[in-house]
Design brief:
Jelly Rolls, 49% strand, mainly beta, seven-stranded antiparallel sheet
Length: 552
């Protein structure tokens, strides 16, 4: 299945899954005689030669030594063709060095793009080249590119197929057929990084567009029923952190380097591709990097998507529809609607409406119920949760009418175990003002009073998005803490609104059961209609990770 792109030093990378070894005698140990490798072929010209060498091996007993003549004549060896299926992305690697610094060698696959000329040193280094095999049994020649009067030593070669879906990350969908995808990138020459667009499936993709760079070229391929066709290959020098952009308009696809189009616009009209709305990052090598947020959207109105630095356990910007939640508590489908014309980030927000009479279990509500993590598991809060940071963005329209019961009007709540039949352990309230309240502690006897957290800025800021970060240190021994930060649209920094510590932060009866999160709107029995937008619901173990995940 697809990866989640990892973050390192604010850059995202993908680590593909490598399948089993395909080469026979990658260590160059089996020789028919001193000049012929048993499981390799050779391609020589002039007086250049292949020789068994025991003095300059990287490991084992022998290495292969190519002695290049004074004319720089051909000297290559090739492992016997492997059995990986056609159109598989394969990783070829070998340890190499030279007797004379500055000499160059090259991977030269049959019927595929050769690697750049690779300068060698007098010490062994590992070199990697990745390409998509055009046929079963493709021959990969390895040897001199521009070298003469020297020796090139080769040892410990490897050929391993990459699982294609593991080269993908950052699943995003667009709500329109036309789009722009862009991101700044660092590419290792001889490997690939870019975008996989218009996928028909994330788990078993068979129809899609692949737009990518390899350090020397920029390419557009289409894949129909698993069969790739190259539509554009254009030479392009790439500097670290340059921007790569893919633009689709109708059946036209174009790629851009720092805003300048590369090559010509190509046409893709295959029905199995052009109407698909799933787009992902693509990389065949873990040292390639995405160095800016993943931006997807309408041409001229791109939307950035965050990366997970490993500390975020949940994020919902509604671009995955309702799949991030276990269920919806609604009386009708029009009470919780995803819209693409009013969002804080991503491509959608949730438009939530609660009407008089929308009663579900003790109040009127329209809520998404229980977070689901990336592995499909429900997220519960217990003492083991430690400290967590929750995020949410709320938009109340200018015509907002507060509910009469201003202590309810909950947009985000930590619901206690159902058997307790109690108010939420934590609630972020939007009524006549923003504030929070907590009902925590021992539920087995006389319940503790509600704790109110009044904000230093409780303004509703009608007609504008307001971002919140809620920190909770979960405890039932009086060592818990709740703090809230706020940032209004247009502001760069968050300001702390309240901080309550040395309290319980969960409900318990002997032990604390499973608490779960809900978002939307929950109120008492009212006579008014409440309609609002919510977005950017997240959960992470640090403040910075939560903010980066929700708002980049």
């Amino acid at each position: 299945m697809a990866n989640a792109a990892s973050l390192s030093a604010n850059a995202a990378f993908i680590t593909p899954t490598l399948e089993s070894e395909l080469i026979t005698d990658g260590g160059c140990e089996i020789w028919t005689d001193a000049y012929n490798l048993t499981n390799w072929s050779k391609n020589l010209a002039g007086s250049s030669t292949l020789n068994q060498d025991s003095l300059n091996r990287h490991s084992g007993a022998y290495c292969a030594r190519l002695d290049i003549d004074s004319s720089g004549s051909m000297a290559q060896i090739a492992p016997h063709p492997d059995t990986a299926p056609a159109y598989t992305w394969c990783r070829y690697s070998i340890y190499a060095k030279t007797s004379l610094a500055g000499q160059r060698f090259q991977f030269v696959p049959a019927n595929a793009i050769a690697s750049p000329a690779i300068p060698l040193t007098t010490d062994y280094l590992k070199y990697t080249y990745i390409c998509r095999k055009p046929t079963v049994g493709m021959k990969m020649n390895i040897g001199r590119k521009s070298a003469k009067n020297c020796s090139i030593y080769l040892d410990d070669a490897s050929i391993r197929a990459e699982t294609f879906t593991s080269c993908l990350a950052g699943s995003r969908t667009t709500v329109t057929r036309d789009f722009t995808i862009s991101q700044n990138m660092i590419v290792t020459p001889g490997t690939q990084i870019g975008f996989c667009a218009n996928l028909d499936s994330q788990s078993r993709p068979a129809n899609y567009v692949l737009a990518y760079i390899n350090g020397s070229y920029a390419l557009i391929d289409k894949v129909v029923a698993g069969l790739p066709t190259n539509l554009l290959t254009v030479q392009q020098t790439w500097i670290d952190n340059d921007e790569f952009r893919l633009v689709k308009s109708g059946t036209s696809y174009s790629i851009y380097h720092n805003g300048t189009q590369m090559g010509t616009t190509v046409t893709i009209s295959d029905a199995g591709i052009i109407n698909n709305s799933l787009h992902m990052q693509f990389s065949t090598y873990e040292l390639n990097q995405f160095t800016s947020p993943f931006a997807v959207g309408l041409s001229g109105n791109e939307v950035t998507f965050p990366q997970n630095d490993g500390n975020s356990s949940f994020y919902c910007s509604w671009d995955n529809a309702f799949r991030d939640w276990s269920s919806l508590d609604i009386v009708n489908s029009d009470r919780f609607v995803l819209v693409n014309d009013h969002h804080r980030s991503g491509l959608r927000s949730a438009h939530v409406t609660v009407n008089p009479g929308d009663v579900i279990t003790g109040g009127e509500r329209a809520e998404a119920d229980t977070m689901i993590d990336a592995n499909g598991n429900k997220i519960y809060e217990t003492i083991a949760s430690g400290t967590q940071y929750l995020t949410i963005s709320v938009f109340l329209p200018t015509g907002w009418t507060p509910p009469a019961d201003t202590n309810r009007g909950i947009v985000l709540q930590l619901h206690s175990p159902n058997t307790y039949n109690s108010s939420p352990a934590f609630a972020l309230v939007a009524s006549d003002r923003y504030f929070c309240r907590m009902k925590v502690g021992d539920m087995s006897g006389v319940q503790t009073p509600t704790i109110y957290g009044n904000f230093t800025n409780s303004s509703l800021a009608l007609g504008n998005w307001v971002d919140f970060v809620v920190m909770i240190r979960f405890a039932i021994d009086g060592t818990g803490e709740v703090a809230v930060w706020r940032r209004d649209a247009g502001q760069a920094a968050f300001s702390q609104m309240m901080d309550v510590n040395n309290i319980d932060t969960l409900q318990y009866q002997g032990t604390a059961g499973n608490h779960y999160w809900k978002c939307g709107y929950y109120r008492g029995y009212e006579r008014v209609i409440n309609s609002l937008y919510i977005d950017c619901i997240g959960r992470a173990s640090t403040f910075n990770s939560a903010v980066k995940r929700a708002w980049y």
